């Protein structure tokens, strides 16, 4: 039970008012939590979507453990055109309004959804990384909204390095399966350092959040984060909805981007226009 002091997002239909404290923390630290964004209706719908997705995976789905083993970690993404609950949540729920508010953008585009499920006992750790070097998107107005479908205490959830989105450092993506870098560090990039050692030495301030179903963790694409295995007695299900704002442009990287989008008529450094892979969402 949350105390009365813990303000919730006040949502009316598709419009949500994000508390000032959350907006300020997102701008300063690159990560925050917005309480009670989605109600039981949306949570039930997304849970149905995750189960459908699990039994009807896309070609981009991946198991980080044996898919026949109940103890495992699996992901999938960009299934929103085929999984109605994801599509409805992106276009009809308060999520787009929250994203626009946090990005301080006049427009909001839906980039994609990313489903991450760790079964009880899954030992696979998500390595330290930040997301934008994986993506075909440049621009500072962006946010991932990590929607919790299960209660997750801070000790068992994601950790963020506060302010790392403002380091002006870009790190080579790492493979989740074995934590190795995608490539040697090209110009403009560096390998992820031993952040656990730096944290142990007191070099960084760490953010983590106690999460209840319907809460949303919001983080910038360049905020460094990791996550432990699942030591809880229930599944840890999340659907992360990724958003981009006014300044988004198409980009390439020295490696295969994720999702593996080709230019298909877009110009590097140019706007996304009416490309259906990056639809505008009307929240007015």
- CA-atom Rg in angstroms: 18 Å
Q: Number of helix segments? A: 5
Helix content range: 10-25%
What is the domain tally?
Answer: 1
> What top-tier CATH class fits best?
Mainly Beta
Description:
The chain is of the alpha+beta class and 284 residues long. It has one domain (27-250): Jelly Rolls (Sandwich). It has helices at residues 20-29, 40-55, 84-92, 95-103, 195-200; strands at 10-12, 15-17, 31-34, 62-63, 73-77, 109-118, 126-129, 137-138, 142-148, 159-161, 206-207, 216-219, 225-227, 236-244, 249-250. It is globular and about 45 Å long. The chain is built from 5 helices and 15 strands. The chain has a 7-stranded antiparallel beta sheet.
List the helices and strands and how they pair.
Layout: E1 10-12, E2 15-17, H1 20-29, E3 31-34, H2 40-55, E4 62-63, E5 73-77, H3 84-92, H4 95-103, E6 109-118, E7 126-129, E8 137-138, E9 142-148, E10 159-161, H5 195-200, E11 206-207, E12 216-219, E13 225-227, E14 236-244, E15 249-250
Antiparallel strand pairs: 1-2, 3-12, 4-5, 5-6, 6-14, 7-13, 8-15, 9-12, 9-14, 10-11, 10-13
Quick recap:
This protein has 284 residues and is of the alpha+beta class. Helices cover 18% and strands 22% of the residues. The chain has a single domain (27-250), classed as Jelly Rolls (Sandwich).
Give short descriptive properties of this protein.
single chain, 284 residues, alpha+beta, Jelly Rolls, seven-stranded antiparallel beta sheet, four-stranded antiparallel beta sheet, 15 strands, disordered N terminus
């Amino acid at each position: 039970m949350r105390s009365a002091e813990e303000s919730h997002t006040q949502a009316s239909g598709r419009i949500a008012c994000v508390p000032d404290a959350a907006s300020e923390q997102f701008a300063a630290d690159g990560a925050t939590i917005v309480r009670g964004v989605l109600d039981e209706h949306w949570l039930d719908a997304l849970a149905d979507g995750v189960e459908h997705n699990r039994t009807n995976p896309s070609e981009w789905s991946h198991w980080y453990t044996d898919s026949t083993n109940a103890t495992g970690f699996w992901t999938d993404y960009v299934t929103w055109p085929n999984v109605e609950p994801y599509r409805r949540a992106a276009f009809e729920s308060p999520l787009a309004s929250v994203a626009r508010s946090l990005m301080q953008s006049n427009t909001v585009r839906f980039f994609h959804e990313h489903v991450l499920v760790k079964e009880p006992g899954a030992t696979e750790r998500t390595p330290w990384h930040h997301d934008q070097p994986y993506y075909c998107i440049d621009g500072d107005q962006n946010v991932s909204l990590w929607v919790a479908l299960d209660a997750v205490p801070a000790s068992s959830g994601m950790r963020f390095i506060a302010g790392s989105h403002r380091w002006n450092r870009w790190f080579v993506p790492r493979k989740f399966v074995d934590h190795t870098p995608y490539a040697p560090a090209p110009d403009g990039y560096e390998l992820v350092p031993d952040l656990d050692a730096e944290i142990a030495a007191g070099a960084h301030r760490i953010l983590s959040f106690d999460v209840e179903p319907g809460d949303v963790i919001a983080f910038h694409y360049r905020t460094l984060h990791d996550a432990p295995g699942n030591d809880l007695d229930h599944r840890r299900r999340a659907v992360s909805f990724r958003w981009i704002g006014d300044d988004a442009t198409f980009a390439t990287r020295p490696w295969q981007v994720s999702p593996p989008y080709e230019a298909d008529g877009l110009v590097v450094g140019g706007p996304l226009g009416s490309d259906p892979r990056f639809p505008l969402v009307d929240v007015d």
